[in-house]
Amino acid sequence: MDIFEKCERFTLADQLRNEGIYPYFHALETRQDVEVIMEGKRRIMLGSNNYLGLTTEPTVVEAGIKALEKYGSGCSGSRFLNGTLRMHLELESELAAFVNMEEAVTFSTGFQSNLGIISAIVGRNDYVVCDRENHASIYDGCQLSFGKMVRYKHNDMEDLERILKKIPETAGILIVTDGVFSMGGDIAKLPEICKLAEQYGARVMVDDAHGLGVIGEGGRGTASYFGLEDKVDIIMGTFSKSLASLGGYMAASHTVCDYVRHNSRPFIFSASIPPACCAVALTALRHLKAHPELPERLNALSAHARKDLRDAGLKIRESETPIVPIYTYTMENTLIKAKEVYEAGVYVNPVLPPATAPNECLLRTSYMATLTEDLIDEAVGVIAKVLLSNE
Ligand code: PMP
């Protein structure tokens, strides 16, 4: 059999292109901002994870340029060997202090962080217990580990307990959950998760990709939001969202971080974050520390958007975060509406199976602290007009 046969059979993307409703890989001609030029036309950006709008913050951009000039374009090696800059260490220690953990370890991307943390920590006789709506990189981290992966129903604590009960007492257990769920925007039930973890001798890891800079005291994330920093064992996060860069991290105790530093293959055998990205993440973190009003503004604008969407008569998936999904139900309707909204000047992301149940497809809108109420009103007006028309 020709190994490329599956590629020949994969015709869906071409089919959608031919129908004019293919929603991916639209090219931007400007920077990631609240308004962008995409394929020659102005679009209001309601599909970015640039929650604090720091990709265009002058001090952040300047720090990137300076680092590029001072340290060159790349590190050409792993953190383990020649690829550690003093700046990586500064970033790690300031980040650990920010999220109230002993130490932090940075990885080249957020995706790689999950691969690297889970595969190092979850060994042959261990169990990793995941929320069903966890991010793909968590699933892949589980696959890369030698342990057994078990999933519980989304944010369903009875189901989590049912699973924990069945795991042999002799096995190590890591419960992994998104802090803020990336597609639904809802928050993990961390108090209950931590309680169950204590009861069943499990450890807790939170993926705070969408929590850092967004919820908790001054944007310190999900553990801080619940006041549970001393109950969460590992916080994972990314620099590609609120911190306007590229890269990822884990924050945990010295022992856990040191184990990962010396045993995680995606960490050891991959080049470190380049100087410009490292400087951007560090400066963005300092900016966040100096501006605790930014997450507050972000949350106020998100609440404004939610109200606008509800008042317009749209059915949204309830959340308390800047991720506000709107139900569009079938895949076909979602693709058609995404295209129409895009043509009318607003960028949103369609969410399709397997990221949702088959007839619960969504348009995921997300908000930035640098948006204005006027821009949000304009965008919601466009979305409502498209979604509520039945032609
Ligand atoms: N975890 C979650 C919950 C995410 O949403 C993402 C990115 N979408 C990642 C991890 C991966 O992060 P990165 O894009 O920085 O690799």
UniProtKB/TrEMBL annotation:
Protein's UniProt name: Pyridoxal phosphate-dependent aminotransferase family protein
Q: Which residues form the Aminotransferase class I/classII large domain?
A: 44-383
Please provide the record's keywords in A-Z order: Aminotransferase, Pyridoxal phosphate, Transferase
- Record-linked InterPro entries: Aminotrans_II_pyridoxalP_BS (IPR001917), Aminotransferase_I/II_large (IPR004839), AON_synthase_class-II (IPR050087), PyrdxlP-dep_Trfase (IPR015424), PyrdxlP-dep_Trfase_major (IPR015421), PyrdxlP-dep_Trfase_small (IPR015422)
The cofactor named in the record is: pyridoxal 5'-phosphate
What job does the chain carry out?
A: Catalyzes the decarboxylative condensation of pimeloyl-[acyl-carrier protein] and L-alanine to produce 8-amino-7-oxononanoate (AON), [acyl-carrier protein], and carbon dioxide.
Oligomeric state and partners?
Homodimer.
Going by the entry's taxonomy, the superkingdom of the source organism is recorded as Bacteria
GO molecular function ontology, one term from the record: pyridoxal phosphate binding
What PROSITE patterns does the annotation carry? AA_TRANSFER_CLASS_2
